[in-house]
Every structure is written in C-alpha cells, then in structure tokens.
Amino acid sequence: GVILLYSLFIRNTQKIAFLFDSIENDDYTFRFIGEGDKYDKLLNNSLNRIKRVLENTRNDIIEHEKYYEHILNNVETGIVIADSTGNIYQTNQAALKLLGMSVFTHVQQLKNIDKELINIFKQTQNGDKRQISFCNERGTVTLSMRTSEVVIRQNRRLIIALNDINNELDERETESWIRLIRILTHEIMNAITPITSLSESLLTIYREKNDNIYKGLEAIHTTGIGLISFVESYRELTRIPLPRQAVFEVQQFLTRMIRLSSPEMHTPIINLSVQPADLLLYADENLISQVVLNLIKNALHASQNGEAILIKAYNNDEGEVIIEICDNGCGIPDEIAPHIFIPFFTTKESGSGIGLSIARQIMRLHGGSISLIRNTPSFHTVFRLIFD
Q1: CATH class of 77-164
Q2: How far apart are CA 181 and CA 239, in angstroms?
Q3: Sequence-separated (6 or more) residues with CB below 8 Å from residue 274
Q4: pTM score, two decimals?
Q5: What is the pLDDT of residue 333?
Q6: For the chain, how are helix, strand and coil distributed in percent, rounded to 5?
Q7: Domain extents in the chain
Q8: Closest CA to 342 of 330, 359, 329
C-alpha cells in the first residue's frame, strides 16, 4: 500500500511539474487525459482547468497588447520607451517616421542622424519639455519632446513623447508674414494710388506748358505705377485660393512643366524619372504647377554652365508622393539657405523674393511640405515636395 501511495504521489508530482514546465515555456498544446480512477480523473481535469485558465489569461493579455499597440501605432505623437542607459524597449510607427528610422533599439543609433540627439535622449528626465531640431532626408525637422516616468517592477522607464511642430511653426510664420504684407500693401496703396492718379491728371495739364514740370510729373507717375505693380506682386502671397484637388498623372504633368519652363533648345538638359510610370497625385494641378515651374526655373538659373537637371517623382515607404527637383548648379551658400522661404528675401537683382514663400504656402495648404536638401552625394541642390 505504501509503495502504491508513493508511486501515485510521484506520478501526480510529475504531472504538476510537467504543467509548470510547459507554462514556463509558453506551451499550452498539452492536455491531461481523463483516465484512471475517479481521483486520477479529478486531478487531470483540475490540471486541465488550470491550463485553460492560464491559457485564456495569456490570450487576453496578447489581445490587449495587440489592441494597445494598434492604438499606439495610429496616433500622430511619437512614443519612445527607454531606460537611463539608452536601451529602447518600445517605439511606435510615428516615432520611427519622425526620426527617419526603421528600427530603434538603442540611442546610439541616433548618431546616424545627429550625435547631439544621443546626449539629449540619455540626459532627459521626468518632466522635461524641450524643442529639438535636426536634419534628415525630409529637410530640417523640429520636434517638441516631453518626458514622463513610470516604474514597472522596480525598473524605471522613461516615456518620451515626440511631436512634429514644423508645420505649426511654418504656419505661424506664414500667417505673421501675410498679416504684415496685408497691412503694408494696404497702407502703401492708400498712399500711392492718389499720387499716381493726381500725377496722371497733371500730366494732361502740363503736357505742352512746361517741359521740366512735365518730365518731373512723368517720373512721379511712372514710379507710382511701378510701385503699385511691385505691391500687387506681394499681394499674391495673401490671395492664394484654397486647393481644388483632383487626381492627375504625375508623368504627364511633369512633362508639361518641362516643356513650359525650357522652350529653348540651348537650355540645360532636364531628365525626368517617374516611378512607377503611372504614379498619381491628388492635388490642385494649377497651384502645384506654380510651385514646380518656379523650382525648375530656379534650377535652370543656377545651371548657367549647362549642368543637367533631374526631376524625380516616386512613392516613399510611407506611401507619400515625393517630387524632387535636383541640380548641380552654383548651389545655395550656408548663410543664405535658412532664409530662402522668407518673403521678400532674394539674391536675384530682379527677383521679388516671394516665389519660394508662395511655394511653401501652397504646399502647406495641401497638407504637404517643401524642403531644401543640400550637398547630397549626387546633387548640390535638391528641392523636395512631400505630399502626405
């Protein structure tokens, strides 16, 4: 009897040990067969019930993790969960996109973007709020960074939230310029229009009476007309209509833009690459044509020595449509590059300084962006249009 009890104890202990070993290995494929006497059946059924409870709990946890991961990957805020040593435990898709990375497991990977980011991520603490900027293939990126802390099983974790504030900054800057331009053009037009009108009337009176007075009035009138025309050109920045978007073929569109911008045979060669060939864009074709024509003309102007120009259009990994105008012309100096999208800024003798400002405003109205990328491996200057 003792031997029977001992063997029964050993057998049942082995079953329980097997149950725990399987659970530790995340293996729930086993099942105890309900055979033997009623006590064996009771034990086997009880072990199977324990297995089912634990399996259901595990499945619930997995489902909840998938649910929360899905939510996390569908928010626009980038989330990075790290520790104080630089290990990255989790990131969502928004964070990877903002940082321009496909995988992020340690802060040392940030050295490929900007070495200063490594120190920023390592030194950030609970409650920190700051603004960070760096350059990547999308141009200059400005992010707001907020850090909070959570303790899980006595392990300290930092939750870093990243938000792209480029568009917000661009929008505020553009709106400020538009308000200023409206005020200036209104005041200038109010002052110049009566002078121009009066000088025109006086011209008819002094046409044959006094040659010196007539010439002076003519100079005043001509200057006034020129100033009115000058002011009207800046009003364009405040009169951009809302986009009337429709789908059109990028290949045909860019081919037409090339024909319009380079009618003469001696202009630099413009090569076109569209991948896929049937690439489509949902935008206001008339407004985007203003942007592309201006960029092509700028590239032609920079390529005075006949350097070939390349126009590329493609889909990036996020499914966005990208159009790039690339040239190897004279390039844009360091001291000028930060100012090129500011209204009134120009390096051309006859330039108005609003072409790129209008381009940025049009792209913003489309929910996209325009950026300058300099000194790439293949080109001195690349203007990139991104359509979200």
Answers
A1: alpha beta
A2: 11
A3: 250, 251, 254, 312, 313, 314
A4: 0.58
A5: 80
A6: 50, 20, 30
A7: 2-71, 77-164, 169-238, 246-387
A8: 359
